[in-house]
TrEMBL record:
Subcellular localization, as worded in the UniProt entry: Cell membrane
Family under the similarity heading: Belongs to the multi antimicrobial extrusion (MATE) (TC 2.A.66.1) family. MepA subfamily.
Protein name: Multidrug export protein MepA
NCBIfam families noted in UniProt: matE
Residue ranges the record marks as coiled coil: none
Alphabetically ordered keywords of this record: Antibiotic resistance, Cell membrane, Membrane, Transmembrane, Transmembrane helix, Transport
Native organism taxonomy: Bacteria, Pseudomonadati, Bacteroidota, Flavobacteriia, Flavobacteriales
Organism encoding this protein: Aequorivita echinoideorum
Pfam families reported for this sequence: MatE
Bilayer topology term: Multi-pass membrane protein
Length: 447
């Protein structure tokens, strides 16, 4: 970031800054979310609802691999940014080389493990009954591409660390567009079914990888590494791991949640319930993109002003971020409550799914207007450099509340208890986050 741009974080109006920071972040999230959403629509309409359930079974694997690459990317990128700022080019190059080596070692090892235990892992992820065979087809092919996915996620963060957000955004768009085009060709035109859906995903990872590779070997990047930079450095690995752990832990909990939900819903309602969760889960990723965009846009504003001891601006950024994100959450809530049937019918014409899923989706989004407090609150601690409360509050919703609730509430409410767990976890985590956020602000943001 140029000096005059960073100085604006401490002088320009908070409202304008939030809009400038949140819009590009929202666009990036929107592109990725649309890819997942439209991919699900294509699969549901061209293959069937079982295919949606099968893909949902494989999502924990993809999420965890992506989280691994993202964690290595974020952890290493922090080191790279500081090294470049200190004009320590050699440390930046060594860190980048270590990121590549570590990503390849871990992902290739995981692919080997995943392929060897494929028949045991798929049922463990919820791929049972009629879901097993299509999930196995999809899983095997997608697994071949996950090292490329991890390298893309890692590389994307390094591109941002070099101050090239436009290239990072293009890297996000390429696999999304490629996947949708390949879905149409391989599933609709060539009638390749689940294999077509899987190859579309894997090849799109390849497109992204080629673009990221092009960036780093071209004149756009200043990180020109040699073979000597690939050797692992213990001090760099330790720092990278510590910085990336919050990201990995957060995404790992998401993967565990998918695994548990697939199994619990299969036992309670069979394939139709797993397919319903596949649709609702994708709507959660898609519909909340503007709220998540405000959250990401809020981070540099709060962090800069906190470092500059401009505490009234920090308080204003917290309040306005919650106000903006809460307002967007209210709009999303209204749309979901009014049009759930129309939304679900976009994904499938299966009568069994259409009959119950709209009701379930209303429950899942019931607390959407208040989640801004939880998201902005946990982001605030990250912005001011307090990693432990940031990690704990980030994990509060899914780790501390949601996972226990999906085991407890079904005993009293059956399958409905699973869906009630969503707003219950939102409300509880919002109360906890609001308490600690208010206490921290009162304690530290005073003149």
């Amino acid at each position: 970031m140029k000096p005059n741009q960073s100085a604006a974080l401490g002088t320009e109006s908070i409202g304008n800054l939030l809009i400038k920071q949140a819009v590009p972040a929202s666009i990036g999230i929107l592109v990725m979310s649309l890819n997942i959403l439209v991919d699900t629509i294509f699969v549901g309409n061209w293959i069937g609802s079982i295919a949606i359930a099968a893909i949902n079974v494989v999502l924990p694997v993809s999420f965890f691999i992506a989280a691994l690459g993202m964690a290595i990317g974020i952890g290493g990128s922090s080191i790279i940014s500081r090294a470049l700022g200190a004009e320590n080019q050699e440390r930046a190059l060594k860190t980048f080389g270590n990121q590549i080596t570590l990503t390849l070692l871990l992902t290739v090892l995981m692919v080997g493990f995943g392929l060897y235990f494929i028949d045991e892992l798929i049922p463990a992820f919820g791929g049972k009954g009629d879901i097993f065979e299509p999930a196995k087809v999809y899983y095997r092919i997608v697994l071949y591409g996950v090292p490329l996915l991890a390298l893309c996620m890692m590389g994307n963060n390094v591109i941002r660390a070099e101050g090239k957000p436009k290239f990072a955004m293009i890297a996000m768009i390429i696999p999304s567009v490629g996947n949708l085009l390949l879905d149409y060709i391989l599933i609709n035109l060539l009638d390749m079914g689940m294999a077509g859906a899987a190859w579309a995903t894997t090849i799109s990872y390849g497109f992204c990888f080629l673009y990221v590779l092009y960036f780093f070997i071209s004149d756009h990047s200043e990180l020109k590494i040699s073979l000597s930079h690939f050797g692992l450095d213990i001090s760099i690995l330790k720092e990278m791991s510590a910085l990336g752990f919050v990201t990995l832990a957060r995404q790992a909990v998401v993967s565990v949640t998918y695994l548990l939900m697939n199994n619990i819903l299969f036992n309670l309602g069979g394939e139709a319930s797993v397919a319903a969760y596949g649709i609702i889960g994708r709507m959660l990723m898609f519909a909340l993109f503007p709220v998540l965009g405000v959250t990401q846009g809020f981070l540099p504003i709060a962090g800069f002003n906190y470092g500059a001891h401009k505490y009234p601006r920090v308080r204003e950024s917290v309040n306005k971020a919650i106000l903006y994100a809460g307002g967007l959450g209210l709009v999303i809530f209204a749309v979901i409550m009014i049009f759930p049937e129309a939304i679900i019918s976009i994904f499938t014409d299966d009568a069994a799914i259409l009959s119950e899923t709209p009701h379930y989706m209303r429950w899942v989004f019931a607390a959407t207007p208040i989640i801004a407090i939880q998201l902005i609150g946990s982001a605030y601690f990250q912005a001011i450099g307090k990693a432990t409360p940031a990690l704990l509050l980030t994990l509060t919703r899914q780790g501390f509340f949601f996972i226990p609730l999906i085991f407890i509430l079904p005993h009293y409410f059956g399958e409905l208890g699973v869906w009630i767990s969503f707003p219950a976890a939102d409300v509880l985590s919002t109360i906890v986050t609001g308490y600690f956020l208010n206490r921290e602000i009162r304690k530290t943001l005073t003149e």
